[in-house]
């Protein structure tokens, strides 16, 4: 699942493959840009901004992409088999010298002037993996709405950029509180630790092929994806329910013994079971 660390890795792959090189292949399989041809243009760089990717070209041009849930960027050598998915899922191909970058299942793809990038990323809070990281500002953003559930506040990219559903659940477990706790009720010491722990987790995982939060052998995650399985600390069965504002609800995992605070409304767990009648596959 793409989160800040995954997007950072994608940006690095694109940077290493294309930066400073002249494109000799350009293929956009996107109705709005089907006639766009970037061959002959030099790729300047690619950066990650939260969960957004910005690939810049000479001529004040930026390609903005977002992976959301299923998107991916893959880089291939000339004789390497493409394994990112079937051909009909390819949205863009950019080739230069001995590397080809292929974007699969990209739900967001648009061009804009490089000088206007703030139009698509200016709303984001401090980036956990970016040069603009500011823990005090991020915490201030989170606490600006003290009645909001912690899990929802963490997912709001306007507060801090880079946390997704996996880290939301794992952070709440490590802090010892449920994702449904109003963030204003978070003890002061844990509120202070929240931003530091968030950055620590993403930095530790941005170089790893498999995301890990536990430090335990053969166990990658404490709670995410482990509904119905015993907690790695206390043995209590991990619970799962939906969380969100109604327009975008996501499964949330927690241990009812290790994590203090309110549980979701009874209907949230039922709604999750209706959406996912079979138990989600375990992770770790």
TrEMBL record:
Catalytic reaction equation(s): 2'-deoxyribonucleotide-(2'-deoxyribose 5'-phosphate)-2'-deoxyribonucleotide-DNA = a 3'-end 2'-deoxyribonucleotide-(2,3-dehydro-2,3-deoxyribose 5'-phosphate)-DNA + a 5'-end 5'-phospho-2'-deoxyribonucleoside-DNA + H(+)
Pfam family, one: Fapy_DNA_glyco
Region (Disordered): 262-284
Statement: the UniProt record of this protein carries the keyword Transcription: no
InterPro entries, A to Z: DNA_glyclase_Znf_dom_DNA_BS (IPR015887), FPG_cat (IPR012319), FPG_N (IPR035937), H2TH_FPG (IPR015886), Nei2_N (IPR044090), Ribosomal_uS13-like_H2TH (IPR010979), Znf_DNA_glyclase/AP_lyase (IPR000214)
SUPFAM superfamilies in UniProt: Glucocorticoid receptor-like (DNA-binding domain), N-terminal domain of MutM-like DNA repair proteins, S13-like H2TH domain
MF-aspect GO terms: class I DNA-(apurinic or apyrimidinic site) endonuclease activity; damaged DNA binding; oxidized pyrimidine nucleobase lesion DNA N-glycosylase activity; zinc ion binding
Alphabetical UniProt keywords: DNA damage, DNA repair, DNA-binding, Glycosidase, Hydrolase, Lyase, Metal-binding, Multifunctional enzyme, Zinc, Zinc-finger
EC number, as in UniProt: 4.2.99.18
Residues in Formamidopyrimidine-DNA glycosylase catalytic domain copies: 2-115
GO biological process: base-excision repair
Residues of the FPG-type domain: 222-260
Similarity section: Belongs to the FPG family.
Protein name: DNA-(apurinic or apyrimidinic site) lyase
Organism this protein belongs to: Streptomyces collinus (strain DSM 40733 / Tue 365)
